[in-house]
Amino acid sequence: MNLFLNLLYMTIESSVPYLLITIGGVFVARAGVFNISMEGCCEFCAFAGIIFTYVTGMIWVGVIAALIMGAIVNTVFYFFTVKFNGNLSVVGTGINLMALCVPPALLQALYGTRSNLIATIFIDPAKMELDLPLIRKIPLISNVINKHTFITYLTIFIVWGLMIVMYKTKFGIYVRVTGENPDAAQSVGIKTNKIKFLCLIIAGITSALAGLNISVEQLGMYTMGMSANRGFICLSAINCGKKEPGKACIYSMIFGFVRALQMVINNYVPAAISSLLAIIPYVTIIVVLLFVEVPIMRKNHFRFFK
């Protein structure tokens, strides 16, 4: 029972970055922009959160720096792709490659190391966990949903809030129309570029929160490549969910569960097998994509031969 409860607890913990990146990415996708730079944005924000905390000794400065970094990265993506009509894949790949090069270069120049920056003298990950008195009193359930971080609980409200924005507000209608028929949107006076920019800012903020959750709340340190392809995995979740926030978030939870399962299994197998198990989340992507796309391919195949 304890093993099962621990798995559920870790599933929630592991799913938070996926949910945050996915819900922001859905807005960008529904606005008609293919944003593959979410991986790089998350990496940059994780780095900014730690280095500014380390330099100033104040966590809140790192949080603000990460949020600003998320907005900056996506603003750069907006100008090169939407305003200047640059190739989405080229610009996104460029940002992702920069995220792999700039942080280690700065670490080497400032601190003489390329691999990591430990800020545990200012950040205690154990103190990031919130003990909620009301939930603590509930048997079993408290073992799963209590003692998570602030961003974990905030994610619940962000996901539900952005779902409401998507389907219950005028802005949400503008986002969907912009992505589905931009010419029609412009004909009725909708400023499609402005909508795309706002969606990218939303994605930048959610990616920043994901990066902060990984580096500041969970580890208290930055390590090179710590976003661990979460941005790319979330693109798969968005695609599998057909750009629907609810469905995309469900797939994000699936990927979070698989990562948690991998970490639990690692405690019971030798190191060599543990390294091999690192491929489980990526194999899951292929399996899920096949599960979603094969029925569509069969349907289109039959249509082709009719």
Automatic annotation (TrEMBL):
Task: Name the domain of life this protein comes from.
Answer: Bacteria
| Key words of the record | Cell membrane, Membrane, Transmembrane, Transmembrane helix
Its localization reads: Cell membrane
Q: Where are the transmembrane segments?
A: 6-29, 60-81, 88-107, 150-167, 197-216, 271-296
Recall the GO molecular function terms of this protein's record.
transmembrane transporter activity
> What InterPro entries does the record tag this protein with?
ABC_transp_permease
Q: In which broad location class does this protein mainly occur, judging by the first location in its UniProt entry?
A: membrane
Q: Which GO terms describe its cellular component?
A: plasma membrane
Membrane topology term reads:
Multi-pass membrane protein
Q: Tell me what this protein is called.
A: ABC transporter permease
Q: Which organism is it from?
A: Treponema parvum
